[in-house]
TrEMBL record:
Signal peptide: none annotated. PANTHER family: DUF839 DOMAIN-CONTAINING PROTEIN (PTHR35399:SF2), SLR8030 PROTEIN (PTHR35399). Residues 22-69 are annotated as: Disordered. This is DUF839 domain-containing protein. Residues 31-40 have a biased composition (Low complexity). It comes from Corallococcus llansteffanensis. The lineage of its organism: Bacteria, Pseudomonadati, Myxococcota, Myxococcia, Myxococcales.
């Protein structure tokens, strides 16, 4: 997570460059004071942030004093790992080079003394396998423009999307199209770590670093490290500026043909979209509980809300927009479902608005203690205005909400209320081998609810896509459709990644699941109907029933969509182990398109038992009462995560599939117990499918499990390797600094570079990255 600093360049000699805003040219020796001690260099043969090589640590002199941060402050950043030569493999890009090395490992012909995959370690550098060279593209608070006072790059980076220049020619989809050496990037900014300042209490972590920046640039006048100086006026100012650090950035990047390094084109029309009312979104598909206002208190048009935030992963649409997942929004303005379930998924008896025996009357008003709320009451916004899959129309003005300008139909930013509120992590689309929507079929969107016990959802548009549709016509299709939730029948509630009896589902002997329509008119069978002696109970009737499964009765489909977690619990849908990413693979090595899902881990009790009943509620004498949790209603066993694949009953037309098979393709593991410890990794997070169907993933938490840095891995699934001990092993390609999470991996158009977000370096452990 970022704080601006100077940068260390390892190009023959060591040069320190101080910075204020954009990195300026080096001054005369000594003009800026004595240089800091040189940092530790990366492996020989490399160069620093503007050239090839592995990047080392800066010394304590690498400090951007004008930015208001201290020496050694770690920075969230975006890096590019670039292919610079085939080294005898014949490869022409990152993906082919890695796959060629995998072939050599499997055949036992890896040239000596070359090491592949990348050795396990935990350093404060970015390390990559030989042949690939990492460089820093941008870091937190770097300017996006040359002009003073212009937009700056935001905080903790996550999802990335690349649009090569000229990608849209001939009606192409943006994936792997256009120029490879220049293009536009979308980057999510999820959060600022540490504790925000409160009345009488100073901030910590990144919040303190950011407060120092605001103090040094004159935005704040108080002594930010002194808790007594934090009073109402300072808090209002801080909250306003903090909300500018999340959301997303839209920026043009270009590659240096001499070095392979990437840089931001600061003369381009780069933009920031954030959590303030300078960014506006239209919520479509549901009605909000009340009228909204902007941050000044001025009324907004019906359905329009200010800002987007808590953006984790996302998806690149085939028509050229970006979907971002508003994940952990509950800390900003509150979560209405928090009134019914404890953080450990225990049922709360007689929860206000949710108590059984009556219709649901959830409170969607903002709580008094939301983190984004200060004594400036106009900063308070609706709970049901956030927590959606949000479609950004990149390049359009941040304030241009969907439908605002009648002269520009189908243009602007919106939140997909039709898919509901959840801890959304991502979105993926069913596409063909050219990454385009399936002709003459409804649009199918998958998304994961990233929480312990979250589910996978599938949206099927009512209308069909036909070739030749305009962007506006395609976007209209997402306004209306049917929402389904995946029920993994037979999954063991004690593990979440095996079938009942401890059997691992495989592609040859998979588990079987079904898509359950969520809505008051759904005639699908409720998964927990049989457990309550009603094997023919329909989902719609179960949702309306004010006494079914210890939750009050839903009164309309808006409630169902705004309370997806509770609705899925009420009808007994099997809980999952934090589905952090879903990616449709139209070119899967198996020969059949598959939906891949990264399950990061669980580690907490489940809300439901094996039969789909609320685990901590019992019906006694006609009333629901609190009961002790059963011994098996927990998933504390899963600390390492897994990757699953879903195979639709009709992979060629998933919109009509009501059932699917599921199987495990990779299981996280501890290096201490692995027979091949160099291939051990844990807690998969973001996935990316390369142009040829290869599966790659980043990790979030491998540092905690294995004391080895998180990184990016290639999952070998070549059919010819099925009998090899390396089949479906994770080959480490890239290693992060310290305890930084590897997020948002994305290839450029020709796969000669892989972009990765370095999120929260130094959040819990020492780091001075970059």
């Amino acid at each position: 997570m970022g704080r601006a600093s100077g940068a260390l360049l390892l190009v023959g000699t060591v040069t320190w460059v101080g910075c204020e805003g954009a990195r300026g040219p080096a001054g005369q020796d000594g003009a800026n004071g004595s240089p800091g001690e040189p940092g530790a260099e990366g492996p020989p043969g490399g160069a620093g942030p503007t050239g090839p090589g592995t990047m080392g640590q800066p010394g304590p002199g690498a400090t951007a004093r004008a930015q208001g941060v201290e020496a050694g402050t770690p920075l969230s950043s975006v890096i590019a790992v670039t292919f610079r030569g085939d080294l005898g493999t014949g490869a022409t890009n990152v993906a082919d080079y890695v796959k060629a090395r995998v072939e050599q490992v499997v055949a036992g012909k890896l040239p000596s003394p070359l090491v592949f995959p990348l050795s396990s370690a935990s350093t404060d550098t970015v390390r990559s396998v030989p042949g690939l060279f990492p460089t820093t593209v941008i870091k937190w608070m770097d300017p996006l423009a040359f002009a003073k006072g212009g937009p700056r790059f935001g905080a903790n980076v996550d999802y990335l999307a690349f649009f090569g220049d000229g990608w849209s020619a001939d009606g192409r989809a943006p994936q792997y199209q256009g120029q490879g050496a220049s293009g536009w990037m979308w980057i999510n900014h999820e959060y600022v770590s540490g504790a925000k300042p409160r009345a009488g209490t100073a901030p910590t972590g990144q919040h303190l670093d950011f407060a120092r920046f605001l103090r040094n640039t004159g935005t704040l006048a108080n002594t930010v490290s002194d808790g007594t100086s934090w009073q109402a006026d300072a808090l209002v100012t801080y909250n306003r500026e903090w909300k500018k650090q999340v959301g997303g950035s839209w920026m043009r990047v270009v590659q240096d043909p001499a070095t392979g390094g990437w840089a931001v084109d600061r003369n381009a029309a780069n933009l920031r979209y954030d959590a303030t009312s300078a960014t506006l979104m239209k919520v479509v598909g549901v009605s909000l509980s009340a009228a909204e206002h902007d941050d000044s208190g001025a009324a907004l048009e019906a359905g329009v809300v200010p800002g987007t935030h808590s953006n984790c992963s996302g998806g690149q649409t085939p028509w050229g927009t970006v979907i971002v997942g508003e994940e952990n929004v509950q800390g900003a303005y509150g979560d209405p479902e928090g009134a019914l379930w404890t953080p450990k998924n225990d049922w709360i008896a007689a929860a206000p608005g949710f108590a059984p025996g009556a219709p649901l009357v959830p409170d969607f008003s903002a709580p008094a203690d939301g983190d984004f709320i200060s004594t400036d009451r106009d900063s308070s916004h609706l709970k049901d205005g956030y927590g959606y899959l949000t479609e950004i129309d990149p390049g359009q003005p941040p304030e241009l909400w969907y439908g605002k300008d009648p002269a520009k139909p189908g243009v602007g930013h919106r939140k997909l209320g039709v898919m509901g509120r959840a801890h959304w992590e991502n979105a993926s689309f069913v596409v063909d081998a050219n990454w385009k929507l399936l002709a003459d079929q409804p649009i199918v969107v998958y998304g994961g609810d990233d929480r312990r016990g979250g589910r996978i959802f599938k949206f099927v548009s009512q209308g069909k896509y036909t070739p030749g549709m305009t962007k506006a016509q395609v976007r209209v299709l997402l306004d209306v459709g049917t929402l389904f939730v995946a029920h993994f029948a037979g999954l063991d509630n004690a593990t979440g990644d095996t079938l009942v009896g401890g059997v691992v589902p495989t592609d040859a002997a998979p588990g079987h699941g079904r898509w359950v329509q969520l809505g008051l008119d759904s005639t699908d069978l409720a998964p927990n109907g049989e457990a309550y002696g009603q094997p023919t109970l329909q989902v719609g009737a179960a949702l309306r029933d004010a006494n079914h499964n210890a939750v009050g009765g839903f009164v309309n489909d808006d409630q169902v969509r705004k309370l997806l977690w509770t609705a899925a619990n009420k009808v007994g849908v099997m809980e999952l182990n934090r589905p952090e990413d879903t990616e449709w693979n139209p070119k899967d090595p198996s020969g059949t398109p598959l939906l891949y899902v990264a399950f990061t881990e669980h580690g907490d009790p489940t809300a439901l038992d094996q039969q789909g009943r609320v685990a901590t509620a019992a019906l006694e004498g006609g009333a629901w009462v609190k009961k002790a949790r059963g011994a098996l209603d927990t998933r504390a066993v899963d600390k390492v995560g897994s990757i699953f694949a879903l195979r639709e009953a009709n992979p060629a037309a998933p919109a009509g599939s009501k059932t699917f098979d599921f199987f495990r393709v990779w299981k996280g593991e501890s290096a201490a117990t692995s027979p091949l410890p160099e291939y051990a990794a844990a807690k998969p997070d973001n996935l990316v499918i390369d142009r040829d169907g290869g599966v790659w993933f980043g990790t979030d938490g491998n540092f905690g499990v294995n004391k080895v840095a998180d990184g990016v891995f290639y999952l070998d699934q070549a059919p010819a390797h099925r009998q090899s001990p390396y089949f479906r092993k994770a080959f480490r390609v890239l290693s992060m600094p310290s305890d930084a999470e590897a997020t948002g991996p994305a290839f450029n158009a020709d796969m000669t570079s892989l972009f990765v977000s370095v999120q929260h370096p130094g959040e819990d452990s020492y780091s001075v990255w970059p």
